[in-house]
Structure formats: structure tokens, C-alpha cells
């Protein structure tokens, strides 16, 4: 590797790992804030940093910082009869695959370094645009793909690493010498194996449509046609459900159900070892969101923005075309990708605090009797449609192109609506409605008292 390639690799690695770790930390804060708002209760607001008369609460972020510090200083307890080697190895096996998984996920389109900027003959710096399709090597400068390790079989690498989480959970429960931990490990292993089958089969239809296993080529197909969620809507929901189950969060948190198993497979863990399990769960949320965005939500693409700039076209009719410099298109693509990932993470947190926990038998029945048959049906249906449209006529091909462009237009309009509504809501004056705060007796008295009936013997 040349020095320039080393520098690009280090920069890509720093961006992806930095984003993963920081967003996972912020998700712990988001869970507390969002759950308190949805349940109409006080959230994290008591951790205060006092500097003289100045008090800094940082909207509850200090709670997350305090928890992170406590993990480093709490006692590292190991049960006397535990297998000490496996007990210490399990948190590593749970956390490291999640970190390695982001290596194959592209955060943006291919960058051509020679087109980022160029010195003009008059001494000014110009920022050229590039063509919409294809990449090229100029003056020995190779294109830079915005993935740490762009593999031809990237999605297979993802599945290979995602399956390693089962090993960490199983070893943690077995080595702890605790019946609750062992029960949680058994639940985790059976649950993750069950839902990995659905997760893999749900993507077969997408592979048939995209015609590739490379994640970046999947994104490029969506940019030139339509987002994967429009061509594989059932696969999107199946993959999302399986991804939530793989991260072991509500409503699929049976391996660590506090009301049944204390804390499940990591009951005996404390200190930083517990912190690694806890943090790996949130990192799994981020990586699953990255995969959802890459495979189904267009990756770094936004409607009508391509490598060469803005092109608004419906079918063969081009309404607007405006070239945009390559450097700005590269930056926009990276920002769009991470913005979509953040929005997906927030939606997963919303799902967590909206649904109740399943029973374990309901969890397994959902996986084997509902999601798995649906994923097989999706593969069959996709194959039938693919064969029927393998060589479409000119009218059918034109109709599909128009439908794809209309789907992009609908996405653009919906996103614009929510952005405008969010900006207006942010600057709108706050309307406060005061309620009586007190005991249940005070509430009842304020509403006219309660009716009493004689006790039934």
C-alpha cells in the first residue's frame, strides 16, 4: 500500500469507529430521554456539574458520562466456581465482531482524489464535477472507495461476523456458574440462531434484484433506480424485525429479561466486563441501522442527487440538471448516510419503548411460524416477478423507470415536509399546560372524588 492509501484507510477507520462508539454512547442517553417522554415521567436531570454559581446539566448527558466512568472503577467480580478464562473471554467475543463488522459497510460513493480540487492556470482553485457513471484512474491516482475493506462478498462477511455474537452470549452464561445465566445463554443462542435464518433469507430477494453481493454496488443500483424498500418492502420489515431480535432488545429481550432471569447471561458480570456487554448491545443497534440504510434505504443516496450533481427527471423527461463539484457530492453523501443511520437508530429506540415483551414461546413461534415462512414466500414471489420481467418490452421498461422516478419524488417530498415541519416546530413558541401535581388522592379529589361501594364478602 502507498502512503496515500494508508492515510485514506486510517481516516475511514477513524470515522466509522468514532461514529459507532459515540452514537452507541448517545443511544443510552436517548433511551432514557425518549422513554421518559413517552411514559410522561421525569428523565435524566439530576446529574449536575457545578462551577461556582453556574450549573451544567447538558440535557441529561452527564448521566451517561457518569455511567461510563463508573464502569472503569467498579469491582471486577468473578464467581468462585466460574471458568475464569472463558468468563473473561465472553465480553470480548461479544464486542469485537461488532467493531469489525463496520469494515465492509460503505459510508459514501467512490472518491476520485484528482477531482476533489485542481489548480487553474490563473492560480485559482477550481472544484470540478465528474461524470455520473464510471470511475477512472488519472495520473496514477486510484479511486478511493469509502469502505475500510470493500469486499466482493461483503454481505457474507457481515453474516459471518454477526453469527459470532451467539458464541459470546453462550460462553458468558455457561462459564458464570449461575442457573439464571445459563438459562439466558440458552435463550440467547436459540433466539439468535432462529432469527439469523430469517435475516439471511429476507435478503435473498434483494440479492436477486441487485445482482451483486457488494454493498456499495447495491447502493449504486438504488441510486440509479429506486430504494430497496420499494422493490422489497416485505424483506425490509422482515430484516428489521430480525435485526431487533439479534440485538436482544425489547420486545425481544428474553435472554436478559430482568423480571425472569435477573439479567440473563451477564447476571454475574460487573465493572467493565458488564460495560462491554451493555455497550455491544447499543453498537449492534448502530450496525443493524447501517445495514438497513445500505441495503434498503439508498445508502448515501438522496433522490435526484448523483455523482455529477442534481438531476430531476421523470422517465425520459429531464426537468433540471445542475452540475455540482465532486468534493461537495462526496461530503453530502457521507453526511446523508450518517443522517439516515441516526434516524433509523431513533426509530429503533421508539420501537423499544412502544411494544411489550413477548413470552418466550411467542418469540420462537413468531420466528419459525411467521417470519420464516414469509421470508420464503418473499423469495418465491421475487423469483416469479424477476423471471416475468427478465426481458421487459420497451413499454414495460419505460413504465418501470417512471415508477422508480415517482418513488424518488415521493421520498423527496416526504423528507422535505418533515424537515420544514421540524424547523417550524423548533422555532415555534412553547405552549405550557399546567396540571395538578400530587398524590393520587389529590388527583381524585380535584376531579370530584371517587365512588365507594360496600365490600363484597
From TrEMBL:
It holds the Pfam family NADHdh. The chain crosses the membrane at residues 6-30, 85-107, 151-172, 193-213, 225-245, 282-302, 327-350, 370-389, 409-430. It catalyses: a quinone + NADH + 5 H(+)(in) = a quinol + NAD(+) + 4 H(+)(out). NDH-1 is composed of 14 different subunits. Subunits NuoA, H, J, K, L, M, N constitute the membrane sector of the complex. NDH-1 shuttles electrons from NADH, via FMN and iron-sulfur (Fe-S) centers, to quinones in the respiratory chain. The immediate electron acceptor for the enzyme in this species is believed to be ubiquinone. Couples the redox reaction to proton translocation (for every two electrons transferred, four hydrogen ions are translocated across the cytoplasmic membrane), and thus conserves the redox energy in a proton gradient. This subunit may bind ubiquinone. Its main location: membrane. The gene is nuoH. Signal peptide: none annotated. It is an enzyme of class 7 (translocase). It comes from Pendulispora brunnea. It is a multi-pass membrane protein. Keywords: Cell membrane, Membrane, NAD, Quinone, Translocase, Transmembrane, Transmembrane helix, Ubiquinone. Its EC number is 7.1.1.-. The lineage of its organism: Bacteria, Pseudomonadati, Myxococcota, Myxococcia, Myxococcales. It is found in: Cell membrane; Membrane. InterPro entries: NADH_UbQ_OxRdtase_su1/FPO, NADH_UbQ_OxRdtase_su1_CS. This is NADH-quinone oxidoreductase subunit H. Belongs to the complex I subunit 1 family.
